[in-house]
Design a protein that fits this description.
By secondary structure, the chain is mainly β. It has one domain (2-115): Bacteriophage SPP1 head-tail adaptor protein (Thrombin, subunit H). Helix content is 10%, strand content 53%. It is built from one helix and six strands. It has one helix at residues 2-13; strands spanning 15-28, 33-49, 64-69, 82-85, 88-98, 106-115. The longest helix is centred in the first third of the chain and has 12 residues, at 2-13. The relative contact order is 0.23.
């Protein structure tokens, strides 16, 4: 029930943003490095800037909070993935999933960057 409400609220008030899931791609034996591969998705999310009084610990100036209904995703966001907000690319720093009862309702994603 809560998951359905979260999904409805974000569906109405959120914005559609690109999400890029970063995975290890092919490994080169010549360079001894793997090339990251990106899988692109779009998702509906609530995005906000952190307030000055919230800047502490992990949260830095310029970070954004992205709230996503867990029911809208077939995966859980993870650090190093990317989101594009207003044409700028942000990197996922941390993810907190809220499970008020049974099953995830919302993913609260801390993102950093803002590089075009």
């Amino acid at each position: 029930m809560i998951a359905t409400r979260v999904q409805a609220l974000i569906g109405v008030a959120g914005e559609t943003i690109p999400y890029k899931r970063v995975t290890h791609g092919s490994y080169s034996t010549a360079t001894l490095q793997s090339t990251p591969s990106l899988q692109s998705y779009t998702m509906k999310a609530g995005v906000r800037q952190y307030r000055a009084r919230e800047i502490a610990g992990l949260v830095q100036q310029g970070d954004r909070e992205v709230r996503v209904a867990a029911a809208d995703l077939s995966f859980v966001p993870r650090p190093n993935d990317q989101v594009v907000i207003g044409g700028e690319t942000y990197q996922v720093v941390s993810v907190t999933t809220r499970n008020p009862f049974v099953g995830a309702a919302i993913h609260i994603v801390l993102v950093r960057g803002g590089n075009g």
